[in-house]
Here is the input.
Amino acid sequence: MKKYLNLDLSDLQKIGGEYTASEIAGQPDLWVSIFNKIESEQNVISDFLTKTLAKTKKIILTGAGTSAYIAFSQEGAIQRKTKITTVSISTTHLVSHPADYFDSDVPTLLVSYARSGNSPESVAAVELADQLSDNVSHLFITCNKDGELANKKTKGDSFVFLLPEESNDKSLAMTGSYSGMLLSGLILFNIDNLNKQKGIVDTLNKYGNKILTDYVSLISDIAKKPFKRAVFLGSGPLFGTAIESHLKLQELTDGEVLCKNESFLGFRHGPKAVVDESTLVVYYFSNNEYVYKYEKDLVNSMSKGKSAMCQVGISETDNNDFTLDYNFSLSDTKTISEEYLTVCDILFGQILGFYKSMHSGFQPDTPSKSGAIARVVEGVIIYPLK
Here is the structure.
């Protein structure tokens, strides 16, 4: 009998969690498949990006909901690599205020992330970019070959990178699609150095399997705790991980657990007031020594004020600077740069959300009892821009 997240497939089917559990568990292998696909398409991808980036003055990374959070984890790394101003702006901002972001005089590359490619805002953002920008190119990173974005005709140059079919999650919560598109973007903008990227993907595969092998039972134990609030903290690219973890836990419990995200430095500027004896606090630690100094200070400051029910740390290497209730480490040595940690660290947030959903009596594949949340957003009217 197949097992996912330490649960038999038959039991997962009974509780309505088969897809979510198998899609979370399948991510380390998915990351390898994504690398192999990019490697097989290297020449055509490289040709498009070389031509496009040579004329680009601004890169906008976009998506809706979970897909938008990918951009928060990538913008710094892509800007450092390309030396082009790179910003993350959700499609939900682009659609309501397009003139604030699209400039007819600035050659722009719009990078669109989308699981289905059918969200109304995702399609509208592309059309508004074409309408308002005289020189705009498009890079579509999507999981659905039949989606509107994968088949979209644009005014300027465009390229579609289609992830392997297994990335197109069947569950409501985005899991493999999230980490898969996140990894894809990081590799695509480093297409000129695939040999190094292969070593990074192999490390991510190892780290992901360590979480799935060594830590699932402990994460299940954390999920059994009666916390009603959860706070996720991350710096730089890991801020995107904190945001996505917030959403995963909140949507998988149908809002029963109220969640918050923040940067380590930002947390003391008011948001720390949310912490009380019913709160779980999760720290996604950077492996950048300069960044970590600020993170360590924040953790040490948590002794002042109300105490959290439980504090959890996730880091690449062992952390002996303070004692938390749970400390999860992935390696004995620092091996990859912090933006790549976002790909594997999200497994903690996904597994926590899955188990909290299951322990709370929800069906992880379809946790929204009222139907208020759907796999593809519904009820959005797109109005013409005059």
